[in-house]
Amino acid sequence: MNSFAFWSPTKVVFGADTAGQTGSEVKFFGGTNVLILYGGGSVVKSGLLDTVTKSLEDEGINYHCVGGVQPNPLLQFALKVIEDYKDKDINFVLAVGGGSSIDTAKAVAVGLAGNDVPLWDYHCRKALPTAALPVGVVLTIAAAGSETSDSAVLTNTEDGTKRGFNTPFNRPKFAIMDPILTYTLPSYQLACGIVDMLMHSLDRYFAPDTDNEVTDELSEGLMRAVIKYGRMAMENPQDYKARSEIMWAGSLTHNGITGLGQALDFSVHQFGSPLSARYDTAHGASLAATWPAWARYVYRNNIARFAQYARKVWGITESDDEAAALAGIAATEEYFRSIGMPVTITDAVGDRVKDDIDILSDICSYNNTRTIGSFKVLGYDDIKAIYQAAL
Question: Which residues contact 159 (CB under 8 A, 6 or more apart)?
Answer without folding.
Answer: none
